């Protein structure tokens, strides 16, 4: 039974990784999960300088998921390269570094710094607010998506995954813009913007007022967007949004994703990623599927 998949020339032993920001760089979770059994570890977002993140409270539980407004708190690229990459190299898994920034120059600084590091791919988080454009996220303007993709590709030595925001009118427009800019792959979806008000404290539940909604409630939206994008561009897709188990993962693969990321489920079940790997294998055995690639994009033929 073959569970390996290939994205932009990089081969993964299975199609399961975790979503950036839900796993740190794997250090904490390595006590519960053998990282070598994952297709890849996707790191928390890293910027050119340390980011303090947003004021607290930054997380709130909601029906069917959670809201977060962490604000991409991270120690900066120097600490990341000295501490996190050497740790991850101990394991037989691929390393995907999530990159964030507030200007194009910020992104390029990190991409250049990672050029000679032993990582496999970069995932560019374009849901970051573009400070030069009044705070609108890079990923909400197709011209900005194409431009940032093209600039990053000029300096990138590893394949580039562009992470798309669902907070747009038509995600296929953003996917086509990333493809036009030279992206090697796409990941989607990032969180949906949401809000919760604590009626007893009579305050916003999160200091930032709004936060990113993730968890099981967003899965039908994510599956629909992955399907749309898979039919609009020719790039491989890493699908995510509410995946909790193998059956959820198979749904994304059928919709057109080549790999999947498990996010919010890690907070409730530290072994959610490994459970998902086993769940995909169980599904393949149940239906006599010898190669996981037979499942990918199956829905296009229906």
Q: How many DSSP-defined strands?
A: 16
The CATH topology comes to TIM Barrel
CATH superfamily: Aldolase class I
* Structural domain count: 1
- The assigned structural class equals alpha/beta
> pLDDT under 50 segments (min length 5)?
none
Give me the CATH architecture, please. Answer: Alpha-Beta Barrel
Arithmetic mean pLDDT:
96
End-to-end C-alpha gap: 25 Å
CATH class: Alpha Beta
Widest sheet, order of strands: 3-16-15-10-9-8-7-4
Portion in helices = 25-40%
Subunit organisation of the chains: single chain
Q: Globular, elongated, flat, extended or rod-shaped: what is the shape? A: globular
Features:
single chain; alpha/beta; TIM Barrel; 8 helices; 20% strand
3D structure, described in words:
The chain has 302 residues and is of the alpha/beta class. It has a single domain, classed as Aldolase class I (TIM Barrel, Alpha-Beta Barrel). Helix content is 29%, strand content 20%. The strands form 4 sheets. The chain has an 8-stranded parallel sheet. Strands 5-6-14-11 form a 4-stranded antiparallel sheet, with no helix packed on it. The chain has a two-stranded antiparallel ribbon with strand order 1-2. Helix 3 links the parallel strand 8 and strand 9. Helix 2 runs parallel beside helix 3. The longest helix has 15 residues. It is globular. The chain starts with a strand and ends in a 16-residue tail after the last helix.
